Model the fold of this input.
Amino acid sequence: MKKIFVLDTNVLLHDPQAIFAFDDNEVIIPAIVLEEIDSKKRLADELGRNARSVSRLLDGMREQGHLHEGIVLRNGGLLKVELNHRSFVRVQEMFGEMTNDNRILAVALNYDMEEREKGSNTRTVLVSKDVLVRIKADVLGLEAQDYLSDRTVSATDLYAGYSTLHVHPSVIDEFYTYRFLSLKSLQLSMKLYPNEFVILRDEMGTSKSALLKVSQDGVRLEPLYLSNDAVWGITARNAQQRMALELLLNDDIPLVTLTGKAGTGKTLLALAAGLLKVEDEHKYKKLLIARPVVPMGKDIGYLPGEKEEKLRPWMQPIYDNLEYLFDTKKSGDIDKILMGLGSIQVEALTYIRGRSIPGQFIIIDEAQNLTKHEVKTIVSRVGEGSKIVLMGDPEQIDHPYLDSISNGLTHIVERFKGESSSGHITLEKGERSKLAQLAADLL
Done:
């Protein structure tokens, strides 16, 4: 059954290729959406880039015909810029003010009413990433949905980076005897990925267990190479933290992703591993730490001072962890230490774009606030001999158009899970304090 999809502005600003995601159905872009896209095209950020991409895409389609009459898309669908469905009466009765959102709702509602009057079975669907717009549509009796085509996986199927297998105790004994297990001989019904960790447990219920890792070629299970010794004073407190350190300290894995709730140790483990590799082993020339400048809550506006002073409020979580690792006693000591070392650089993510970064240990914190394109831009900056660590909590999104599934961190975890050059771990147990763990679980 054919459908009519009316697109909100935020869908196109999130994914300029969204018009091709609706198969052979009719795609409607309300005229007010073009006005909103035009107002964003001069921005220097991701929204501005996407606004310009949409503008160029629509401009190229004009060669095929008039947009207000409809253009046949490559997937068999029909794209139309709507100018005539501007009656605002029905929506105004419900919501009053003639906002841009309400105008988009009016277009969708008028289309829906027309189809019903014709006795057609064609459904009209409003597609928006704005929760309140979808709620308003529901109040008006309109069908509305989020834009889901760019999601790589459902929320329940997110890759955790490790699996637990219950096996016969003889299998665990075989591992301890030969120090490896062939995946083929185990005849597993589930798929295991390169660098994925496996916890073997006795199916008979005893305490016998083993912690292993899938080899980079994905053909066998092998032991962890690292012991549980302290790394810059930090010792793994649970199995997932030990897995994370195994990935962070493995020079053959240039891309590591860490996810988990607040207090699970993501930042501290990554910084400890980076300091060991840069300061002690001299494997990398520099430790570069960056995070996106996305404030939680109301922005505090422009800050006075030099670049370092402006960035300090957003970079403070990084400095807090560095102060713990260096065991500083006084305020300001960490700045003196970092100035003296010269090999540790704390930056805002804005200043990484356009750079080529060879021979460095790179940590990107709060990566859940990055879009897919931004993650691609950052990882493609990584030069020869560098290692990059992206980490964050997909449940704590401060970006208006992202969620736990569509953000850049989740995207790269899913895209790279089958690659031998990457590894991922989801940290689950909070180790900051009992109160922090309770807050993460209950609040």
